[in-house]
Design goal:
Radius of gyration: 22 Å
Shape: globular
Structural class: mainly beta
Distance between the termini: 49 Å
Strand order of the largest sheet: 1-6-5-4-3
Helix content: under 10%
Number of helices: 2
Length: 427
């Protein structure tokens, strides 16, 4: 009983810090740990400061729903992949440009572009690579942003938020799949028969003799890392340490799609054969209730006022299902039609729904807790705009970051093949 209570308290701590990582893993070759040399860790930093940004736009969008807009880049391809809202916005991406915002760069680079909450550039830091870059993921860890790339092998870059510099924290001649951030960084490799977890600071590798197809969640837990992952015949909940992976629960012939953590439950969205279900587990991972739902894709689970909200796409229709801890369905309502993709934010006890439509317009609407639309705005954009991040800013509007390749009703200027844009939309 005491042991179970200890586990429940530990999970409660886990939930309090909400250290949930969504990680996906793809096929890869075998890997052997290789520590970087002292010389390799010393990197040349290319810095562009605010005083040398000569290409800042005048934020001339004529759309009344756009508070401001700005874009950044050079004459080649510049891609954004992740955005972190910290003391400023930290925009993480890769560039093939060597001019304009990247006029100090001579070859392919990883960049960290710092913007304030009004979209104004502060500094742009770049790390150059002599080969093409494949971006994998980035995570905030302690006082740094860890950036995992493949460029003639694996490189784990550490961008220090205080010193504003890069360091090669780990490298390997093989190609990595992904990155777990727990009590230390863990680089994940997988091939057809096994999965390798390389603990970067411990300089140890644990080999699991089966292929993990995707890791849906991983975070620090007890004396190790709690991982939830899919494999060929189902999914598992397990505890990973430097020398073992201990199964806590195993679910056969099911695929884990999505997960949410509340103060009482692990809420799992799974596919079982031809059915899609919601599984509610208690804090000791015991199945309490389940709910069969419509077959769907691109699901998002949220929790508000002790109720569970499932947003999902089905035949390009965005819908909302509301259910309680007893898995009773309380409400099902359609939110938006002809949707390609979407994101949901919680703002002032209402949901903000940002939808990319089939006709390449952008729909922004406020929806209350029973699925009623309170307000709605639709903005025409071009086909090739790609929204990477949408977050609430300090003025309770929506700060959007993405890529685009030509001007549209939101963005008034561009520099090259693909640029990065930021804008703020009124809710």
């Amino acid at each position: 009983m005491k042991k179970n209570l200890k586990n429940i308290v530990s999970i409660g701590v886990l939930i309090t810090i909400l250290c949930v990582l969504i990680i996906s893993v793809t096929t890869l070759s075998n890997a052997n740990n290789l520590r970087t040399s002292q010389n390799e860790n010393k990197t040349q930093i290319n810095e562009t400061t605010e005083s040398t940004f000569n290409y800042v736009n005048s934020k001339t969008s004529l759309n009344k729903n756009v508070n401001f807009e700005n874009n950044f880049g050079g004459s080649n391809n510049d891609q954004v992949y992740d955005v972190f809202k910290l003391n400023n916005y930290y925009i993480i991406g890769t560039s093939q440009s060597t001019n304009y915002y990247f006029n100090n760069v001579k070859q392919n680079s990883v960049f960290v572009l710092i913007c304030d909450y009004l979209g104004n550039p502060i500094k742009n830091f770049t790390y150059e690579c002599s080969s093409n870059i494949t971006y994998i993921t980035s995570k905030v860890f302690k006082n740094s942003i860890l950036i995992l790339i493949n460029a003639n092998g694996t490189k784990l870059l550490e961008y220090n938020l205080t010193e504003n510099n890069f360091e090669v924290k780990y490298s390997n001649l093989n190609t990595a799949n992904n990155l777990i951030v727990s009590n230390e960084p863990i680089v994940v490799y997988a091939n057809s028969s096994q999965t390798l977890f390389t603990f970067v600071e411990s300089n140890l590798t644990y080999t699991l003799p089966k292929k993990i197809s995707s890791i849906v969640m991983a975070c620090e837990y007890l004396n190790g890392t709690l991982v939830m992952f899919n494999f060929t015949n189902g999914f598992e909940i397990a505890l990973l340490t430097t020398n073992n992976l201990t199964t806590i629960k195993s679910f056969e012939n099911q695929t884990l799609n999505n997960i949410n953590i509340t103060n009482k439950n692990f809420v799992l969205d799974v596919t079982s054969g031809t059915q899609q279900k919601i599984l509610l587990l208690d804090l000791a991972f015991n199945l309490q209730n389940e709910l069969t739902i419509n077959s769907s894709e691109k699901t998002k689970l949220m929790f508000l006022n002790n109720m569970h909200y499932l947003f999902y796409l089905n035949n390009n229709t965005l819908s909302l299902t509301l259910f309680c801890n007893h898995a009773d369905k309380l409400l099902e309502v359609q939110i938006e039609n002809n949707v390609k993709n979407y994101d949901i934010l919680l703002l002032n006890n209402n949901f903000v729904v940002l939808s990319k439509k089939q006709d390449n317009s952008l729909s922004l609407q406020s929806v209350n807790i029973v699925g009623q639309t309170l307000s709605k705005t639709q903005i025409a954009i071009n086909q090739n705009i790609n929204i990477i991040s949408a977050t609430e800013n300090n003025q309770s509007n929506i700060f959007i970051v993405g890529n685009f390749d030509s001007v549209n009703q939101i963005i008034s200027n561009n520099y090259g093949k693909t640029d990065v844009f930021v804008c703020e939309l009124k809710v």
